[in-house]
């Protein structure tokens, strides 16, 4: 069970952020931390049938006349037809609506552990922090190391610890948002648990998934983890400063990524040297601008279109 | 693994339904899992058995019906069958595919008493 409000799964803890006293139920712990939650999940739509046989079910009663055998309770078929992720999707929709209403550009950053998500975030906050409000939700099994690194830049961050959990879900993000309370028109970075498998299935309410792949991981990863790369809008190919030391086939990596997801934008970057970061910041600014304009219900000014993957890779890496 | 979270979601859906109908024990649950979904059926089976212990669904039979995957191939401009993520178009061998069917994961029915 979620230790915050008794639903969901895992031993989830949320640390950091301001206390938020809306019309939620609150739990005050002995150490003074306050957790808030509201109750609004989707409910399964249940049809109960008497002595019918469902489309999938075997015969459940004894004999064609459906007689009740003495001492045996007849079983019933209940038709459910509910998406397994319906509850998560309901929380995600709630988050997404809140983002849209506040003009918040929310991104779900995913990668394997150590690809450089946090380093890229730190670099991004330092570069953009004077032009945009950036708020961060950090996800890890344990420790607040990443949230502390973010806070050291001056940006607000809330840490979700999933315990044994392998991914963030929308419900955890709803809790974190209650504490973080990103301002209007902010960029919200949600740094997911380092894992290229599990987070793919869980919508958090984000505008886009951004997958970070580092050149030290090999060019075949987009083929090995098709679900994640297919769901991402942008791939940040990180640590390109290390290319001279590696036998990394850059062209093959780009081809592999586009084989899995023909629409994937790709930007080669280095969080250490800053290479490629301007193109990433442009992508961010365009997205944040659209989110803000949508809030104002004004038609966005015509822009030069999404950052083209081939042009960007060439510009950032070959030119 | 995430199948554990999904198994817990299945259990929650099942428990809610059973409670609402005033029933006591689940005998069987039918899931529909798409070929192109994020779920590995055997992992789901393992996880469901684990999470169902000490619940109304303990010992319940889990029936998994696999639904076929399909995609629209932008090269062929036609719908094609697709058995797994990452597979090429069976007609042209290309990868410009938009998934159209078999990505879902649903609880369809349950048998309870």
CA-to-CA gap between the ends of chain A?
52 Å
Largest sheet of chain A: 8 strands, mixed
Estimate nothing, just give the exact number of structural domains of chain A.
Answer: 1
- How many β-strands of chain B, per DSSP? 6
Kindly state the mean pLDDT of chain A as a whole number? Answer: 82
| Largest beta-sheet characterization of chain B | 3 strands, mixed
Describe the fold and architecture.
- Chain A is of the alpha/beta class.
- Chain A has a single domain (88-318), classed as 3-Layer(aba) Sandwich (Rossmann fold), CATH 3.40.50.
- In chain A, 31% of the residues lie in helices and 19% in strands.
- Chain A is built from nine helices and twelve strands.
- In chain A, strands 1-8-7-9-6-10-11-12 form an eight-stranded mixed beta sheet, sandwiched between helices. Chain A has a two-stranded antiparallel ribbon with strand order 2-3. Chain A has a two-stranded antiparallel sheet with strand order 4-5.
- In chain A, helix 1 (86-102) runs parallel beside helix 4.
- The termini of chain A are far apart.
- The relative contact order of chain A is 0.14.
- By secondary structure, chain B is an alpha+beta fold.
- Chain B contains two helices and six strands, in the order αβαβββββ.
- Chain B has helices at residues 2-20, 41-52; strands spanning 26-34, 61-67, 70-73, 78-81, 97-101, 105-112.
- The two termini of chain B are 31 Å apart.
- The chains are: A alpha/beta (319), B alpha+beta (113).
- The A-B interface holds A 9-10, 43-44, 46, 48, 54-58, 60, 73-88, 165-167, 169, 197-198, 200-202, 223, 226-227, 230, 258-260, 262 and B 1-2, 4-6, 8-10, 12-14, 16-18, 20-21, 23, 27-28, 30-31, 38-39, 63, 65, 74, 85-86, 95-96, 99, 104-113.
- Strand 5 (76-83) of chain A pairs antiparallel with strand 6 of chain B.
């Amino acid at each position: 069970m979620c230790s915050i409000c008794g639903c969901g799964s895992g031993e989830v803890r949320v640390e950091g952020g301001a206390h938020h006293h809306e019309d939620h139920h609150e739990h005050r712990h002995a150490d003074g931390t306050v957790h808030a939650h509201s109750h609004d999940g989707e409910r399964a739509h249940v049809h109960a049938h008497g002595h019918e046989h469902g489309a999938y079910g075997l015969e459940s009663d004894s004999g064609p006349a459906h007689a009740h055998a003495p001492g045996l309770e007849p079983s019933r078929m209940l038709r459910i037809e509910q998406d397994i992720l319906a509850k998560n999707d309901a929380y995600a929709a709630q988050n997404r609506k809140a983002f849209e209403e506040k003009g918040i550009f929310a991104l779900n950053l995913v990668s394997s552990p150590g690809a450089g998500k946090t380093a890229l975030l730190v670099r991004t906050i330092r570069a953009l922090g004077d032009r945009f409000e950036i708020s961060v939700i950090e996800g890890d099994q344990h420790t607040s190391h990443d949230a502390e690194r973010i806070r050291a830049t001056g940006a607000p961050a809330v840490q979700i610890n999933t315990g044994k959990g392998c991914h963030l879900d929308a419900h955890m993000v709803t809790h974190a948002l209650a504490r973080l309370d990103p301002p209007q028109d902010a960029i919200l970075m949600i740094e997911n648990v380092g894992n290229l498998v599990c987070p793919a299935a869980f919508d958090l309410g984000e505008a886009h998934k951004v997958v970070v792949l580092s050149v030290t991981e090999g060019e075949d990863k987009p083929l090995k983890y098709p679900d994640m790369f297919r769901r991402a809008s942008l791939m940040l190919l990180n640590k390109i400063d290390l290319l001279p030391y590696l036998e990394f086939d850059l062209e093959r990596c780009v081809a592999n990524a586009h084989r899995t997801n023909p629409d994937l934008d790709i930007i080669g970057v280095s969080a250490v040297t800053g290479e490629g970061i301007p193109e990433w910041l442009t992508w961010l600014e365009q997205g944040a601008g659209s989110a803000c304009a949508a809030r104002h219900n004004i038609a966005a000014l015509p822009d030069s279109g999404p950052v083209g993957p081939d042009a960007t890779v060439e510009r950032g890496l070959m030119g | 693994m995430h199948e554990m979270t999904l198994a817990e979601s299945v259990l929650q859906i099942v428990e809610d339904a059973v409670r609402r109908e005033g029933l006591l024990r689940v005998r069987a649950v039918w899931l529909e899992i798409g070929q192109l979904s994020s779920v590995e059926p055997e992992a789901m089976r393992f996880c469901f058995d684990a999470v169902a212990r000490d619940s109304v669904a303990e010992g319940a039979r889990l029936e998994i019906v696999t639904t076929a995957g399909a995609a629209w191939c932008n090269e062929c401009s036609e719908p094609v069958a697709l058995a797994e993520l990452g597979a090429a178009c069976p007609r042209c061998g290309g990868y410009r595919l938009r998934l159209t069917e078999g990505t879902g994961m649903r609880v369809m029915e349950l048998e309870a008493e």
